[in-house]
Amino acid sequence: MTWVFAVTLVLLAAAVAVPFMVAMPGRSYRGDLPPLTEDERRLRDGLARHVEVLADEIGERHIWRGDTLDRAARYIEESLAASGFAVGTTAYQALHATVRTVVADLPGADTPEEIVLVGAHYDSVVGCPGANDNGTGVAAVLELARLLRHQRCARTVRFAAFPNEEPPFYFTRSMGSRVYARECRERGDRIVAMLSLETIGCYADAKRTQHYPFPFGLFYPHRGNFIGFVGNLRSRGLVRRCVGAFRRHDAFPSEGVAAPGYLPGIFWSDHWSFWREGYRAVMVTDTAPFRYRHYHTPQDTPDRVDFERTARVVAGLAHVVGELAGRLP
Length: 329
Fold this sequence. Notes:
The structure is a single chain. The chain is of the alpha/beta class. It has helices at 2-22, 38-58, 68-82, 131-148, 176-187, 236-249, 271-276, 307-325; strands spanning 87-94, 97-106, 111-121, 155-162, 190-198, 227-231, 254-258, 281-285. Helix 4 (131-148) links the parallel strand 3 (111-121) and strand 4. Helix 6 packs across helix 8 (307-325).
């Protein structure tokens, strides 16, 4: 009967582990979405403008396509400066090119040494204009900076845009966020939360539009109409804080998971780089290839992005960042 005992132990472990990974505060929104507010319509238009510049006017953004990566970095710098930020960059050499991370800080009023970092990669994979992956993430960083520019927070909010997330730099020492996270650790930066905005513009209400790596399909919806918050087990508290804040403030479906970081889909973006340096970090995503059929293809163009629902998500993220940073009156 040894096998019966073993199976029983496995089932008991699963019964404990699964609720620990998937249980989140509040309830995901259900029902018809309310009309966009005037501010959300302005946000929608701003997101669309950024994505159109990145994916249409600039196009593929990588070091094998002329100066497009540099043009994207300059556009990000100019957009942050237009919102009133002092913008800095950190440069490094990758193969034959010099690339840079673009950074802007909203200084904290009470504990400025503690940092909430909101970041996204601005490069695209070869052969892909990268509207959703990851023009939407970059656009969200730029619009969050605009929305929060006059907000007083206890902690510093740092906005960052990274190069070289895509192959062949993915999970190498030349990955932009990996270089930057290592620099942060060496400087002793106290990053208390990192949000990686990764491919956030695809939503669908039809059945079976959402897929998952095993075993997550057993616990999550199969309509791809939600935004996801994804972290490793060490970042579970941060995942729960993000989901709770989002659900309190935004009438939009949301799901969260804190799972072992080695599982497929859990570590697939820039948050991984910050995990490597011991920081707590969460990916905010529409789940990319598990939902978006134009992922890493030439068809990843602005017309495939649902800007209305992306605007709702970014409006909710503004509240999440505000809570994490300790919004002050």
